[in-house]
Amino acid sequence: MAVERQFELGDAELEVLKALWDAGPATVRQVLAWLHHRGRRVAYTTVLTVLTRLEQKGFVTSDKSGLAYVYRAAVTRERVTRKRVKALMQQLFDGAAAPLVLQLIQNERFTKGEIQELAKLIEDLDAARRGRRT
Amino acid sequence: MAVERQFELGDAELEVLKALWDAGPATVRQVLAWLHHRGRRVAYTTVLTVLTRLEQKGFVTSDKSGLAYVYRAAVTRERVTRKRVKALMQQLFDGAAAPLVLQLIQNERFTKGEIQELAKLIEDLDAARRGRRT
DNA sequence: GACACTCTCCGACAACTGTAGTAGGATGCC
DNA sequence: GGCATCCTACTACAGTTGTCGGAGAGTGTC
């Protein structure tokens, strides 16, 4: 690879994006504060660099309204999340979702509420399937 | 980052590991054939390099029984898979499994059999939870 | 105007990963 | 013995990502 791929997100980049998702549009300094708050000890310029790269990749936009540039996420958390999950499914299970779900259900713990919610969703799925007579 | 992390698997590395999982212990040439079969056009020496790195990282072992070294996976597919999924959960959902499962169920399609299997697993989970009086 | 701050820009560097060429040893065939 | 073939070791290089430092511009304060 190394050629062709073009834009994916590394850990640091994702972390910065999260700051924008959680805190809304923010300046470099605000993102830095958010990261420090989360225990990520990085320098101001590091955040700046990451934001710049994210902008190059199209994940954020910026505009200078006051003294400093304000950065804003240009992609939704849902979109990025879905894409990542898809990629993982592709990589590990040749794109199939079921094995992943099965693994999660068997290996992870869920609260009562979560289990109920899952049960309900599954039931809905089943009902929909029947409804479509598939 | 760049420092500290030490060993994770890239796409190419994972693909090579898959070859060993699927086809069992194999020589460089056999892995190469497997990759070509899967449409991955890489050179012999590339495979050799990747296998060498995987060995350095402890993911495979090798032994020279005949003319060429035979490489063998030193980690199970399950172990690697679980670790990757955990990492994704950590990265995207702060370690929580439920949001990931919910997203999968809502966004992906499942066959009748899969839905039934899921329903059964959820039911078991629920029963176990009740059994524990938790 | 000088000093202190705060920003952005540019350049840099190291680790990791993907990819591969070249050299040289081993083996087998004529 | 010479030549083709196969294998490993070593080296290399580019792209990506994480991480910063220093230079220089803008702004506010005495």
Task: Put the structure in a nutshell.
Two copies of one chain form a homodimer. With 134 residues, chain A is mainly alpha-helical.
How would you portray this structure in words?
The structure is a homodimer of 134-residue chains. Chain A has two domains: 1-94, Winged helix-like DNA-binding domain superfamily/Winged helix DNA-binding domain (Arc Repressor Mutant, subunit A); 97-134. In chain A, 62% of the residues lie in helices and 7% in strands. Chain A is built from six helices and two strands; from the N terminus they run αααββααα. The first copy, chain A, has helices at 11-23, 28-37, 44-56, 77-93, 98-107, 112-131, and strands spanning 60-64, 69-73. Chain A has a two-stranded antiparallel ribbon with strand order 1-2. In chain A, a hairpin with a 4-residue loop joins β1 (60-64) and β2 (69-73). In chain A, α1 packs across α3 (44-56) and α2 (28-37) packs across α3. The longest helix of chain A has 20 residues, at 112-131. The termini of chain A are far apart. The A-B interface holds A 1, 10-12, 14, 81-82, 84-85, 88, 91-92, 97-98, 100-112, 114-119, 121-123, 125-126, 129, 134 and B 1, 11-12, 14, 81-82, 84-85, 88, 91-92, 97-98, 100-112, 114-119, 121-123, 125-126, 129, 134. The structure holds a DNA duplex (30 and 30 nucleotides).
**How much beta of chain A, percentage-wise?**
5-15%
Gyration radius of chain A (Cα, Å) is 20 Å
What fraction, in percent, of the residue positions of chain A are helical? 55-70%
Mean pLDDT figure of chain A: 90
Relevant CATH superfamily of the largest domain in chain A? Winged helix-like DNA-binding domain superfamily/Winged helix DNA-binding domain
The main sheet of chain A orders its strands as 1-2
Number of helices of chain A: 6
Number of domains of chain A: 2
Considering residues with a beta carbon less than 8 A from a beta carbon on another chain, report the largest interface and each chain's count: A-B, 40 and 39 residues
Span between N and C termini of chain A? 40 Å
CATH architecture of the largest domain in chain A: Orthogonal Bundle
